[in-house]
């Protein structure tokens, strides 16, 4: 399952996000989105977990929790919209 995570602290590293979700099961990938020009984190990212049950548990337990001073918001990612 692909998970959308927003309201991230700009200094949070992908390794830290992986550890947070890893407490609930295997994490196959983590990507914090960065500005192409400045390289600064935009405050959101994606976590991929192969086990849907573990991912659902992670979403319910982590959503709203404080991570580095920010209440992060976690939900199942929607498929990308087509660009016509």
- Under CATH at level 1, the class stands as Alpha Beta
Specify the oligomeric state.
single chain
Specify the number of helices.
2
What distance lies between the first and last C-alpha atoms, to the nearest angstrom? 26 Å
- In N-to-C order, the SSE pattern is EHEEHEEE
In which range does the helix fraction lie? 10-25%
The overall pLDDT, averaged over residues, is 95
> Strand order within the widest sheet?
2-3-1-6
Largest sheet: 4 strands, antiparallel
| Count of separate structural domains | 1
> What integer value in Å does the Rg equal?
13 Å
Globally, the shape reads: globular
**What is the name of the CATH superfamily?**
RRM (RNA recognition motif) domain
Q: How large is the share of residues in beta strands?
A: 25-35%
Structure description:
With 84 residues, this protein is α+β, with helices and mostly antiparallel strands. It has one domain (2-76): Alpha-Beta Plaits. Helix content is 24%, strand content 32%. The protein has two helices and six strands.
């Amino acid at each position: 399952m692909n998970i959308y995570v927003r309201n991230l602290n700009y200094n949070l590293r992908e390794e830290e996000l992986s550890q947070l979700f890893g407490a609930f099961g295997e994490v196959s990938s983590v990507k914090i989105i960065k500005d192409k020009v400045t390289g600064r984190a935009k405050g959101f990212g994606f976590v991929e977990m192969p086990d849907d049950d573990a991912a659902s548990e992670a979403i319910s337990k982590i959503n709203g929790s404080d991570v580095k001073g920010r209440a992060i918001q976690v939900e199942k990612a929607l498929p990308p919209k087509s660009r016509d």
